[in-house]
């Protein structure tokens, strides 16, 4: 009589509330807050950019409640992949939506990692100014493409991340944690330095008509919110590890909501402190190019000199590398999990025979990230957020209001207050970001191409299986 197959090993629930909070904060604080201040100031035309961070925090809090509720109701590995599969029907639309989520990750995750690589290269060029000169500049589907020394540095960062991750996970775990601590300490130091040299007349030097609610204001607000959503991104990281969290009904909501409140406070204080030292008008126009590229280095240089600025550049470069490591480490597991579930090409389910890591998923995401390094930071951020809004945030916001989940709400777990108002506000906020951009059709076109390609692959796979 043949022996029954041994059960597959289950994930160990070993992540505590404090560790979960740390994972989220480290995921949120990458290179973003160190490079995007000028982007929001230019988009909104002055220090009223603070409104973008505050509203971005409010939007993230509303969406965070969606993640917290779904995370406690379905505490499984994969996060959104599991939520969409459960709530839209595992044998119906849920299988398609979860496949499309894993599919878009092959594009959005490299964009996210490329933003860290580009930010890394941008700050490294502080030491090698000639690397910022482009030797090729063209367009692809209306999107600017630039090849320069910075592009090569960004690609080198990808290869470095792959080299480090292509070994036992245990060897890099402590490195990522220490880098995360260094990032938070860097934020705190910048804030302290700014407020000890603070000039309120600079920080609150609003231009005439700064809060005039005309079309230009809302276009600027939409652009500012898009960058803010990028900066706050990562408050849901622990949800991808739902199968490894202790007491998920308590841990996940505390980690999600707590990380948003912590990072919102740090971001607003840090950026206000910088605006109290560097006049915002210096970030505008061609003359402000240096300030825009190295805003935090310029800030520290004015206060403590060139040597201190150089140290700050190295810390920010480390922060960028930390975010690249963390993203490639965690997000490579999603196409791997989908492939193991039978809902993604089997090629992604391959494990390295020695290190037991999803080698094909790592190589695929790393290769796509190399390609994404040829784009400018602005286009990378905007395309990333638009794709995630369409394939992730909106689908989840709707899913939490479906009848199937309403039945689940009767059970124990975190329940968003004033249900379903936070979900509706999150959906409205994300739609506003989409339609307020004057050239939003460009990013939507990219998302449509990803959708059509993904749906085609899904239909071919279903036909073969039938």
Describe the structure.
- The chain has 466 residues and is mainly alpha-helical.
- The protein has one domain (17-410, 419-465): Amino acid/polyamine transporter I (Up-down Bundle).
- It has helices at 17-28, 32-35, 37-44, 49-73, 80-87, 89-124, 149-165, 170-195, 200-203, 215-232, 248-275, 289-293, 295-304, 306-331, 333-340, 359-372, 377-399, 403-408, 421-436, 440-465; strands at 134-140, 143-148.
- A two-stranded antiparallel ribbon has the order 1-2.
- A hairpin with a 2-residue loop joins β1 (134-140) and β2 (143-148).
- α5 (80-87) runs antiparallel to α6.
- The chain is globular.
Give the key terms:
single chain, 466 residues, mainly alpha, Amino acid/polyamine transporter I, two-stranded antiparallel ribbon, 20 helices, 69% helix, globular, disordered N terminus
Compact summary:
With 466 residues, the protein is an all-alpha fold. The protein is 69% helix and 3% strand.
**What is the gyration radius calculated from CA atoms?**
22 Å
What is the CATH architecture annotation? Answer: Up-down Bundle
Number of strands: 2
Largest sheet: 2 strands, antiparallel
Strand order of the largest sheet: 1-2
Q: Kindly give the count of domains.
A: 1
The CATH homology group name: Amino acid/polyamine transporter I
* Structural category: mainly alpha
**Mean pLDDT across residues:** 82
Strand content: under 5%
CATH class, please?
A: Mainly Alpha
Could you tell me how far the N terminus lies from the C terminus, measured between alpha carbons in angstroms?
A: 32 Å
CATH fold annotation:
Amino acid/polyamine transporter I
Q: Note poorly predicted spans.
A: 1-9
**DSSP helix fraction:** 55-70%
Helical stretch count?
A: 20
Secondary-structure element order, N to C: HHHHHHEEHHHHHHHHHHHHHH
Q: What form results from the Cα inertia axes?
A: globular
């Amino acid at each position: 009589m043949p022996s029954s197959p041994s059960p597959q090993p289950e994930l160990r629930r070993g992540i505590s509330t404090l560790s979960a909070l740390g994972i989220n904060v480290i995921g949120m604080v990458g290179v973003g807050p160190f490079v995007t201040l000028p982007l929001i100031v230019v988009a909104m035309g002055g220090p009223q950019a603070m409104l973008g961070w505050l509203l971005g925090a409010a939007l993230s809090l509303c969406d965070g409640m969606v993640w917290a509720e779904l995370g406690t109701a379905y505490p499984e590995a994969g996060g959104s992949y599991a939520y969409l599969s459960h709530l839209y029907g595992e044998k119906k639309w849920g299988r398609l939506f979860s496949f499309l989520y894993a599919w878009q990750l092959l594009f959005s995750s490299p964009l996210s990692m490329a933003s860290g690589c580009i930010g890394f290269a941008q700050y490294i060029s502080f030491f090698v100014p000639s690397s910022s000169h482009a030797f090729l500049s063209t367009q692809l589907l209306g999107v600017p493409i630039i090849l320069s020394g910075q592009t090569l540095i960004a690609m080198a960062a990808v290869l470095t991340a792959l080299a480090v991750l292509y070994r036992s996970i245990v060897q890099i775990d402590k490195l990522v944690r220490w880098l995360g601590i260094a990032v938070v300490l860097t934020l705190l130091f910048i804030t302290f330095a700014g407020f000890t040299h603070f000039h309120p007349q600079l920080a609150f030097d609003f231009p005439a008509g700064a809060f005039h609610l005309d079309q230009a204001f809302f276009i600027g607000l939409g652009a500012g919110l898009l960058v803010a959503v990028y900066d706050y991104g990562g408050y849901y990281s622990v949800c991808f590890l739902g199968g490894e969290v202790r007491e998920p009904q308590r841990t996940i909501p505390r980690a999600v909501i707590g990380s948003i409140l912590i990072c919102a406070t740090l971001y607003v204080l840090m950026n206000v402190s910088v605006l109290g030292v560097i006049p915002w008008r210096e970030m505008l126009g061609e003359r402000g190019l240096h300030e825009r590229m190295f805003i935090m280095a310029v800030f520290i240089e004015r206060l403590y000199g060139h040597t201190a600025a150089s140290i700050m550049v190295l810390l920010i470069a480390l922060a960028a590398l930390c975010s690249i490591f963390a993203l490639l480490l965690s997000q490579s597991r999603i196409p791997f999990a989908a492939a193991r579930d039978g809902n993604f090409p089997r090629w992604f389910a391959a494990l390295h025979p020695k290190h037991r890591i999803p080698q094909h998923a790592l190589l695929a995401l790393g290769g796509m990230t190399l390609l994404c390094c040829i784009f400018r930071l602005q286009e990378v951020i905007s395309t990333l957020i638009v794709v995630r809004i369409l394939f992730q945030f909106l689908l989840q916001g709707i899913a939490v209001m479906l009848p199937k989940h309403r039945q689940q709400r009767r059970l124990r777990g975190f329940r968003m207050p004033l249900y379903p108002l936070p979900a509706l506000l999150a959906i409205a906020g994300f739609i506003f970001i989409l339609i307020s951009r004057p050239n939003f059709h460009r990013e939507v076109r990219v998302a449509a191409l990803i959708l059509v390609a993904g749906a085609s692959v899904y239909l071919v796979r279903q036909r073969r299986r039938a």
